[in-house]
Design a protein that fits this description.
Radius of gyration of chain A: 24 Å
Oligomer: heterodimer
Largest interface: A-B, 62 and 45 residues
Number of helices of chain B: 9
Radius of gyration of chain B: 28 Å
Largest sheet of chain A: 3 strands, mixed
Number of strands of chain A: 3
Structural class of chain A: mainly alpha
Order of helices and strands of chain B: HEEHEHEEHEEHHEHEHEH
Strand content of chain B: 15-25%
Structural class of chain B: alpha/beta
Strand order of the largest sheet of chain B: 7-6-5-8-9-10
Helix content of chain B: 25-40%
Chain lengths: 369, 369
């Protein structure tokens, strides 16, 4: 469901504030959903179109039980995609919607700019739908039992990928992006001359690889294996005695694992970044007087730490605030580090005001750019 | 929007119920979600399937080669463990609020609420268990575990040895190599061990409602006893006219039709006890739930003989809960009352409906045995 008129107005405001803060994001498409649907989509990892598998049903059961017993709820969800999709719970209060919109814009900025997300597929909405179609086709042909059982096996090892490989340029290997999409599906070509029209993009490469002699192929496998010893799934796709459909299923699981990995890798930064900005946008721009208590209640719930627990929102937020404070006051560099006078150190303030600039650098995390 | 969550959810439910994909059954885990209903806390069953995965051993970070050196000598670099990738969750920026309570805290609440006496474990502490205590010193560790005294002692030693210590100006400045940390060491402690047997009548007259009552009650009994016995074992026996041992899942889902011979369960219990649980090493508890309809006077007689001759003398506590059913009320409760009215370690209760669970637990566990 699209946003209500009132929410559209709010969205425009928040977007304006976010841009004023310097956030740089893809277009964001907001959807307003009842809790059943937001739980469904959350169970699918944020994508309305996923291949059939029981574990999504398991996720769903946990989420809906948690919601119906009042234990947990999802206020918002945002998908790394261009355009960015964000789902809002329709029962949120107006002030909650403001907060989560601000939160979403900051997430989207992070997706767009942080180095860990640079190689993720920005058309993942289409890609997961495409994966669903492919797997459904295999289910029709080979039966749900066979396909599901194989997916289970793949899922057991789906963490055996090389999460750093997209950022490393290795000698002799193709560009890292191609590395992830090993199994680009080719459409069957009946006549050779049609090939160019049916599989247009990488036809040149294909022709070349068809001409590869067997020796070269073996060499390629070996160099692939050695150049990327951590990517066990890639090794299996290339070398394991799998049927064609199994190879394809494994490559789907691998591709999705690479897509989701940065979200685990950057959880603290990403949530900290979004919390930093929702707090700033709300308290400095968007909040109305009578919304203050509700906002404070919600925000403090978000950053609360249970004894013995770990809250990425809180840790990330504090890290960014600390960096901002230190770079505002010039508390860095040799002079500061080597200062022995504790009182001077504590009251150190060079009034540099570089805090905001610095945290934008940190959120990109790419020191070579 | 194309959502298939229902079919995924159905499939998951079917796997949990054991109707399809038998090979996944061994990965099913029965956890509970804890909810609040007014003042009361309820447990919400939440079955999960955990596919097997490769994991790092949380205890030993071993596998780093180094030359000679004492245990705990810092290694130049590395040894950072696995950077917290863990289960960072790949739910894109989902906002979740949770209420957390541990089973232990729950047991405390239960104990307070019902004014349950603490259990006095009998028998000697014979079972070894291993716990980590901070009882040794290491040269590496987190700053929060820094050992000041040892660190300064080391610094003093070094300064005396190198001749930089002056009596007239006794200032000690530790350098990095001096710093010592408290380190954990696994300690063996002796504990008493315990086992609970749950026995349940699964004859035709025990319906879903009755089983639910048993489920809820056994959850609380488990929680309470587990608080007193860390290494608690549980075993499950079902019976109609014959008895057999089953696992937890089967215990709560099996349904038979036909008659009831309670003696079969008691005989099986006594056999298991005689075979594997000697009463001076184990604290033994048995809880039997039935609707009280037994097959006849002859069988009642066998029951009483088995109980008094082979069970009660070996066991801390025997509890019998009679659950009301649609088919009228059995008289087994009465028979036990008549025969064991002055036996110390037997406890009887009648459970009319869900609300009576509270009193029943109090009766069972109020003896502090």
């Amino acid at each position: 469901m699209a946003l209500t008129e009132n929410l559209i107005r709010i969205r425009e405001k928040i977007e304006e504030y976010a841009r004023k803060c310097g956030l740089d994001f893809f277009e964001v498409i907001f959807e307003l959903l009842p809790w059943e649907e937001i739980n469904m989509i959350a169970a699918y990892g944020g994508f309305p179109n996923r291949y059939p598998h029981w574990r999504f049903g398991m996720e769903y059961e946990e989420l809906s039980k948690g919601y119906s017993y009042g234990l947990q709820r999802i206020y918002e969800m945002v998908i790394n995609n261009d355009p960015c999709y964000a789902y809002l719970l329709d029962s949120n209060k107006e002030v909650d919607q403001k907060l989560v919109m601000a939160h979403v814009y900051a997430h989207c900025d992070f997706f767009k700019n942080n180095i860990f997300f640079r190689h993720t597929n920005r058309k993942m909405m289409d890609e997961t739908a495409n994966h669903a179609t492919r797997i459904k086709k295999y289910i029709d042909r080979f039966g749900i039992e066979a396909v599901e059982e194989f997916i289970d096996i793949c899922l057991s090892i789906d963490n055996l990928i090389d999460i750093h490989s997209p950022y490393i340029k290795r000698k002799g290997s193709e560009s890292s992006q191609d590395d992830i999409n090993v199994q680009k599906k080719k459409f069957p070509v009946k006549k050779e001359y049609m090939s160019h029209f049916i599989n247009p993009d990488n036809s040149e490469e294909d022709n070349k690889s068809q001409q590869d002699s067997k020796d070269e192929k073996v060499e390629k496998i070996i160099s692939n294996t050695i150049s990327n010893p951590r990517d066990i799934l890639l090794f299996l796709i290339n070398n394991a005695p799998l049927k064609e459909w199994q190879q394809d299923v494994l490559s789907i699981i691998r591709e999705e694992a690479y897509y989701f990995a940065p979200q685990g890798q950057t959880k603290i930064m990403n949530e900290g970044w979004a919390t930093f900005w929702h707090s700033r946008i709300m308290t400095m721009m968007a909040l109305k007087d009578d919304e203050l208590i509700d906002y404070a209640d919600h925000h403090s719930g978000t950053v609360a730490i249970q004894p013995g627990g770990f809250n990425p929102y809180k840790i990330g937020l504090e890290l960014f605030r600390d960096i901002e404070d230190r770079w505002n006051k010039g508390k860095f560099g040799r002079d500061y580090e080597e200062c022995d006078d504790m009182t001077r150190k504590r009251n150190w303030d060079l009034k540099l005001n570089q805090g905001i600039q610095k945290i934008f650098e940190v959120r990109r995390l790419d020191i070579y750019r | 929007m194309a959502l298939n969550i229902e079919s995924d959810h159905n499939r998951f439910r079917k796997i949990v119920k054991g109707k399809i994909r038998e090979n996944l059954r061994k990965f099913i885990k029965h956890s509970d979600m804890l909810g609040k209903k007014g003042k009361d806390i309820v447990s919400i069953p939440l079955p999960q399937i955990d596919l097997p995965r490769f994991k790092h051993n949380p205890q030993s970070g071993g596998g780093i080669g180094q030359g000679d050196g004492d245990v705990g000598t810092p290694i130049g670099q590395g040894d950072e463990g696995q950077a917290g990738k863990g289960k960072a969750g790949n739910q894109p920026g989902a906002h979740i609020m949770e209420v957390e309570l541990t089973i232990d805290e729950l047991a405390d609440i239960l104990g307070e609420e019902l004014q349950l006496p603490r259990i006095q474990p009998r028998g000697k502490h014979k079972i070894e268990s291993i716990r980590t205590r901070y009882r040794s010193i290491s040269r590496i560790g987190p700053e929060s575990l820094r050992h000041f005294k040892r660190t300064y002692k080391e610094a003093l030693k070094r300064q005396i040895a190198s001749g930089t210590y002056r009596l007239d100006n006794p200032i000690i400045i530790p350098v990095k190599e001096d710093i010592r940390y408290k380190a954990g060491k696994p300690m063996r402690t002796l504990e008493s061990n315990a086992v609970i047997f749950y026995l349940m009548d699964i004859s035709g007259s025990m319906g879903d409602e009755q089983k639910d009552i048993v489920r809820i009650e056994s959850f609380w009994i488990d929680a309470w006893l587990r608080k007193h016995y860390p290494g608690l074992e549980t075993r499950y026996i079902v019976h109609d006219v014959a008895a057999r041992e089953v696992d937890r899942e089967a215990f709560f889902s099996l349904r038979e039709s036909g008659g009831t011979m309670i003696s079969s369960a008691y005989i099986l219990l006594s056999e298991i006890l005689e075979k594997s649980y000697s009463s001076d090493e184990w604290n033994i508890y048995a809880f039997h739930f039935s609707d009280g309809e037994n097959w006849g006077d002859d069988d009642n007689k066998v029951c009483i003989e088995t109980l008094s001759g082979r069970i009660l003398n070996r066991i801390n506590l025997f509890c019998y809960g009679q659950v009301a059913s649609h088919y009228g009320e059995g008289d087994f409760l009465k028979i036990l009352e008549e025969n064991f009215s002055d036996t110390e370690n037997i406890s009887l209760s009648f459970i009319q409906d869900r609300d009576a669970i509270y009193d029943s637990i109090k009766t069972f566990l109020g003896k502090g045995r």
